[in-house]
From TrEMBL, chain A:
Keywords: Signal, Transport. InterPro entries: Bact_solute-bd_prot1, SBP. Residues 20-42 have a biased composition (Low complexity). Residues 1-20 form the signal peptide. Residues 20-46 are annotated as: Disordered. Belongs to the bacterial solute-binding protein 1 family. This is Carbohydrate ABC transporter substrate-binding protein. PROSITE patterns: PROKAR_LIPOPROTEIN.
Length: 443, 507
């Protein structure tokens, strides 16, 4: 789940989806047909209609629509967009069971690829699409979109989760510097901020996924990518010493109430975009540990990205500089020519470049030139993904069964929140995590 | 029943003329009752008709009455049943049966069957899902919460509704008042949830609840001092934190000087009277020192008074020896303090806790302990108006003469309320209570929205858990169905009460 919005919004989305939130872009269809009549020969999919379902709404939907428009322009196919709402599974499940899935669905978690492949709801990608993937993606991503040896999905949109956003004026006041190691972050940067009277961190602990993101960065950097992969698949237990190390490092933040706005109790009542407001709007804190999409909320709070809202790469708590990505995987649910053509287009550098020109988009495609991005910051992010190459990892909680890694008040979300409440009990938390993980993976 | 018994008496009492003209009325009820002894309703219905017909049509009465029971008898040839033929009845009932079957019966049966299978739906697991409900501690919390809800919320809503209804009865602005109290019903539960999420915010600047509490609190106890100020955490700091107080690391001799550097406070937070800090002037036999904010933006020397650093005025300072406070003083505008006339000896200088007391910030409504009461509060806000309107309607139907009689007999207003009004209202109160119990058992949206993610486990209720387990990430529709059936079983007795009451009213 790349942008996990608050429960409230999720509820609203759910309602919207229930009311048949199918919105096809009426503006684009006449232009597509007009274009089609002028040059029919160049458009192989003239007359084909496709439905693509994704969770994006608002600006994100508009930006995606631009890509669809370009695809329509190129192929002559008519594509309608359906919004799944925040809970993609709840939207797609009934449609799959009813035998009426969309042609293409964009899934917010790779875990769903496995789940739908088990239900025989996905169509294997055609050789053309796979050729695009081989050309544009590292093997890790191909594997991520696969299930049972078949390639089903292609990662079309990425979110960079190894970032710390900070407020430059607060750093100036405190004389603090962006940290390059975890120990620097805790011992120098955060400490001098706290001494200056500004809370170093605004934690969004009411949104459990922000805590899992924090854990993943600390774990990837302290335990290394191999252990990360093992823990992602639950091949090592959560009681492993490497987890202890990571949790103890996190406790260096959680254990000090002056390190976060409102102390642990306040942090546990703060949900995701609110913590960004605490940094850039209320100016109560100096840093927020979250992904690239913080930019949206920071701008809403009146900050200028690049001037007062700056980013530092997540300082490594060990040997590996962490790059954790989230992202959306596109899959075909109907075996139509149009579906494969659209996937091929989305996986291509051409499609990625069209998308990259819109704000708020980051491509995992290594052949999408960073020059396409509208601002320097995104360029920089894209560069880190491309240069990290094989060491990039996908968000661990999104790889886990959602009962463990993606449910409010359950599994990893709950236990990390409990850990914030009582950071002394590392062992106890590990045992609870392991118990829930064992239950979730058994199913 | 009373009206019906009264009814026939009226024409009998004053209808001597009518009876004389048509001797029917007294006998006419007999034939239908005799021919159709099974259907008393029809008989009484005939009774009712008799009243009006006899009064209006004195001469045409008997024939009309005769054709009444005769007509159906002709149409349905002695079946003994006044209703339509079974075929027609089935035809008319079919739509209702189909809808009920498709939307009520089938889903219930399907859920029941589904609850006996595992998450995937492929393996039969018997009652394992039900066992899971009663062994999983998280689910047990939801049951406990539902119990709290059922015990507290419906009765509070009913009591409040009753209070509002009785009090507004005598207010001139009753309609306006009722309109205001009823208003929340016009807001969807989802929107109410969003509203109360804001009401219960911790920060008094955002949350109304805490804004009220803190304003009231601040009237009685003004908060002052330097919340958040603390000594630096390193080995060189001359002062350290000790159970909320700040003490000097080394004991000081009378006549000595101490430096107490503090951090963790913004310069803007100092009072406007604060002057640049300076070292206290030494005087023989006088213990002196400086309390100051040891932070210069962008640097400054640690534990040294730099040029721009300001003193902290009005800090209470204690000189402690042998565990007892020997002298107390406060700092000046430049942060200096002096203890004069101390006996010789070694002292520890202590800044007591009240200097650093956190400002009172109200209750943690959205924390693990208060979350359920807080959500129940929102529920009451929504439903009290509904209860009030129902009870007010019942209240207006109470016969006034009973109340009058009681008052004439010398009953106090409380006695009238307690002994007359409430017993007469009890059917309405029961309706409200039972409706509210069913409402609380299925409460979902308020909990879903008001409780932040971190306290969802503590606020969870069965209906929400059911949804979460089946769709909201859990993906286990077997367990979800089991929870649904469990909820159904909980609701059934109250449904039964409601249905029985309806029957009794109709009888």
């Amino acid at each position: 789940m790349r942008v996990k919005t608050t429960a409230v919004v999720a509820g609203l989305m759910l309602a919207a989806a229930a009311c048949g939130g199918q919105s096809n872009d009426t503006g684009s269809s006449p232009s597509a047909s007009a274009g089609g009549s002028s040059a029919p020969a160049a458009k192989p999919l003239e007359g084909t209609t496709l439905e693509v379902a994704a969770k994006w709404t608002g600006d994100e939907q508009k930006n995606f629509q631009k890509v669809l428009d370009a695809f329509q322009e190129k192929t002559g196919a008519k594509v309608t967009y359906a919004s799944t709402g925040e809970d993609t599974g709840a939207y797609l499940g009934p449609r799959i069971q009813g035998g009426n899935p969309p042609d293409v669905a964009i899934l917010p978690q790779p875990g769903l690829v496995q789940q739908y492949a088990d239900q025989n709801a996905l169509k294997p990608l055609s050789t053309e699409v796979q050729a695009q993937i081989d050309q544009n993606y590292t093997p890790y991503w191909k594997e991520l979109g696969s299930a049972g040896g078949q390639v089903y999905g292609v990662l079309v949109k990425a979110a960079h989760k190894s970032l710390i956003w900070y407020r430059q004026p607060a750093f100036d006041d405190a004389g603090a510097q962006p940290a390059t190691t975890w120990d620097d972050l805790i011992g120098k940067t955060a400490q001098s901020l706290a001494d200056s009277g500004t809370a170093p961190f605004a934690l969004c602990a009411a949104s459990g996924w922000t805590l899992t993101d924090l854990f993943e960065n600390v774990y990837l950097s302290s335990a290394g990518p191999e252990n990360y992969d093992k823990l992602s698949k639950h091949e090592i237990p959560w009681t492993d010493p490497s987890v202890t190390t990571a949790l103890e490092k996190i406790a260096q933040i959680f254990g000090k109430k002056e390190f976060m706005v409102g102390g642990p109790s306040g942090a546990l009542q703060t949900d995701f975009p609110t913590c960004v407001t605490q940094v850039y709007g209320d100016k109560k804190a100096a840093m927020v540990i979250e992904a690239d999409f913080v930019a949206v909320s920071a701008v809403q709070s009146g900050a200028k990205v690049g001037e007062d809202a700056k980013i530092m790469p997540f300082p490594p708590a060990g040997d590996t500089p962490p790059v954790v990505l989230g992202g959306d995987v596109a899959v075909a649910m109907k075996d139509s020519k149009g579906a494969m053509a659209l996937l091929e287009y989305l996986a291509s550098a051409e499609g990625g470049s069209v998308w990259a020109k819109s704000p708020g988009y980051l491509s995992p495609n290594r052949n999408v030139s960073p020059d396409n991005y509208p601002d320097a910051l995104t360029k920089q992010l894209a560069q880190t993904i491309i240069s990290a190459g094989e060491a990039v990892r996908y968000d661990m909680s999104d790889l886990a069964p959602s009962a463990f890694g993606g449910t409010d008040g359950k599994g990893e979300w709950k236990h990390l929140q409990d850990f914030l409440r009582d950071p002394k009990d590392v062992k106890g938390i590990q045992e609870k995590l392991e118990a829930d993980a064992a239950k979730a993976w058994k199913k | 029943m009373t009206e019906r018994l009264d009814g026939p008496q009226t024409p009998r009492g004053d209808g001597d003329v009518a009876r004389g003209a048509s001797p029917g009325p007294d006998e006419t009820p007999q034939p239908p009752t005799a021919t159709h002894p099974a259907l008393e309703d029809v008989a009484t219905g005939q009774d009712g008709t008799t009243d009006s017909t006899t009064a209006a049509a004195t001469s045409a009465g008997p024939p009309a009455l005769a054709t009444g029971p005769a007509a159906p008898k002709a149409g349905y040839s002695g079946s003994g049943n006044l209703g339509p033929s079974p075929k027609v009845a089935v035809f008319f009932l079919l739509p209702a049966f189909v809808l009920l079957g498709a939307w009520m019966v089938y889903p219930i049966i399907f859920s029941l069957v589904r609850s006996l299978y595992d998450a995937g739906g492929g393996t039969f697991v018997g009652v394992d899902n039900y066992a899971a409900i009663f062994t999983d501690s998280a689910t047990l919390t939801t049951i406990r919460n539902n119990l709290i809800w059922v015990v507290v919320a419906p009765s509070l809503v009913t009591v409040l509704g009753l209070l509002f209804a009785v009090l507004t009865e005598r207010v001139r602005w009753a309609t306006a008042f009722k309109l205001v109290v009823f208003m929340p019903m016009a807001v969807s539960l989802l929107a109410s949830g969003v509203i109360f999420r804001l009401v219960y915010e911790q920060d008094p600047d955002r949350g109304v609840a805490n804004a009220i509490i803190t304003s009231v609190h601040d009237v009685f106890a003004s908060s002052s001092g330097y919340p958040g100020a603390r000594p630096r955490e390193n080995d060189q700091a001359p002062a350290v934190a000790d159970k909320g107080t700040v003490v000097t690391r080394q004991p000081v001799q009378a006549g000595g000087q101490v430096l107490i550097p503090l951090v963790g406070l913004k310069t803007e937070a100092l009072p406007s009277g604060a002057a640049a800090a300076k070292e206290a002037s030494a005087a023989p036999g006088e213990l002196s020192g400086t309390v100051w904010l040891d932070f210069t933006p962008g640097g400054g020397t640690v534990n040294k008074i730099d040029g721009t650093e300001k003193g902290m005025p009005d800090v209470t300072v204690e000189a402690v020896a042998g565990g007892a406070v020997k002298a107390t003083t406060t700092t000046a505008a430049d942060g200096t303090f002096h203890f004069t006339g101390l006996p010789a000896g070694s002292y520890q200088v202590r800044l007591p806790q009240e200097n650093f007391a956190q400002p009172f910030s109200g209750a943690t409504w959205l924390g693990p302990t208060l979350i359920t009461p807080a959500i129940i509060g929102a529920f009451i806000w929504v439903w009290a108006g509904f209860a009030m309107v129902l009870i007010a309607a019942g209240l207006s139907a109470i016969p006034r003469d009973a109340l009058e009689a009681a008052r004439i007999d010398g009953a106090t207003e409380w006695q009238v309320f307690r002994r007359i009004t409430i017993p007469l209202l009890s059917p309405v109160l029961l309706v409200v209570l039972v409706t509210m119990i069913i409402n609380t058992l299925k409460v979902f949206d308020l909990v879903f929205i008001i409780a932040p993610g971190s306290v969802q486990p503590q606020a969870n209720v069965i209906a929400l858990e059911m949804w979460r387990v089946s769709f909201g990430g859990g993906g286990n529709q077997g367990l979800g169905s089991a929870l649904a059936i469990f909820l159904l079983v909980l609701v059934l007795p109250f449904m039964a009460i409601n249905i029985r009451r309806f029957r009794r009213e109709q009888a």
